[in-house]
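Case 348 in the screening queue. Each case pairs one protein sequence with one candidate compound; here the compound is EPU. For every case the pipeline is the same: read the inputs, emit a complex structure as C-alpha cells, and attach any notable structural observations.

Predict complex for case 348.
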Amino acid sequence: MSRTDSTGFVAGYPLKAHNTFGLDVRAQWACRIERETQLMAAVRDPRAAGLPRLVLGGGSNVVLTGDFAGLVLLVALRGRRVVGEDADAVYVEAAAGEPWHEFVAWTLKQGLPGLENLALIPGTVGAAPIQNIGAYGLEMCERFASLRAVELASGETVELDAHDCAFGYRDSFFKREGRNRLVITSVTFRLPKAWQPRAGYADLARELASNGYAANGKQPDAQAIFDAVVAVRRAKLPDPLELGNAGSFFKNPVVSAEQFKALKKRQPDVVSYAQPDGRVKLAAGWLIDRCGWKGRAMGAAGVHERQALVLVNRGGASGAEVLALARAIQHDVLVRFGVELEIEPVCL
Ligand code: EPU
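Case 348 output:
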C-alpha cells in the first residue's frame, strides 16, 4: 500500500506506470514535483537524508532492475513559451515535465519549425538533454540553447550551455560526471529562422517520396516531415503504451577504420556510416538481426519483431530478465562480429 502525507511524500510507491518498460518495482519514497519549491523541500526532507535519489520524467530511458531504496522525484513541471529572438533564431523554453512529442507539435503550431525530425520520441523535455535524443538525421544538441537545473547538494539553480552539457552521440555530462547531481527544470531551444528540411535519412526519404516529395522536386515543409517521422516510427517502433520498451537498447557502436575494413571483407552488406574522425558507426540493429535475434524471446523479455535494436517487455518481465536477454545478445554479437555493444538506457 502507498501512503501520501501533506509534503507529497509517498512511501512504497509503485513505479510501473512511471517507466516505459512497465517494470513492476517500487520506490521506498516518491514525491511528485509540480513546482521548483517542492523540489528543494523534497530534497531537504529528513526522511530522504543520505538516501540515493532518482529523477524520473517519462521513465523512457531507464531499466529498473529492482525496488529503488531511495527517493524518486517525479518531475511534473509544466509550461512552454517563446522567450525571445535574435536575427537568426527564435528561442523557446519548456519545463522539464512537458511531454516531448506534445512540445514538438506545439512548436510547429506556433509556426516554429526545427524539431520535427524528433517527433514521437517518448519521454519528457527534461530527459531530452540527458541522452541527447536523436532521430532521422537530427540530434537535440543541434537545437539546444541552454537549460536550468537545481543542484541537489546546494539547492542552487544553475544555468548550463551546450558546452557545459558536453553532448555526444546518446551522451552528455548528465550521464557521466553530472549523474545524480542536478535536476533539470527547464530547457531552452534555439530554432533557426532560416529553416531547411532535413530529409536525407533513408527511411524518412522513402516515406516522403511515397507522399509525393522528392529531393530534387517538391520540398516537404516541417509538418510533412513531422507526419512522415510519425508514420515511420509507428511502422517500426513499438508504442510503449502497448508493449513496454525503452527505445533502442544499445548504442550504435563506433569502430576503427581497420576493424571496419576487416568486418566489411567478411560481411560485405554490413550497414555502416562513416564518421568525421575516420571511424565507422555500425547499425547495432543489423548486427543483432544477423545473429538471428529479431522476434526472439528469453522469458518475458523479447526482441522487437520489426527493429532488433529494441528490447520489449512481453508482459510481466523483470529488469533482470531484460538484462539477461541483453547480455545474451551482447555475447552473440561479440562472438560473431568482434563488436562490443554498449547498453544505452540507464540501468538501476
Ligand atoms: N536494421 C536491420 N535490422 C533491424 C534493425 C535495423 O537490418 O532489426 C538495419 C536497417 O535496415 C537500417 C539500419 O539497420 O539499414 C539502421 O536502422 P534504423 O534506420 O531503424 O536505425 P537505427 O540505427 O537502428 C537509430 C536510433 C533510433 C532512431 C533511428 C532513426 C540509436 C541507438 N538508435 O536506430 O533511436 O529512431 O536511428 O534515426 O542511435 C532510440 O534511441 O531509442 C531510437 C529509437
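Case 348 observations:
- The longest strand covers residues 182-192.
- The mean pLDDT is 95.
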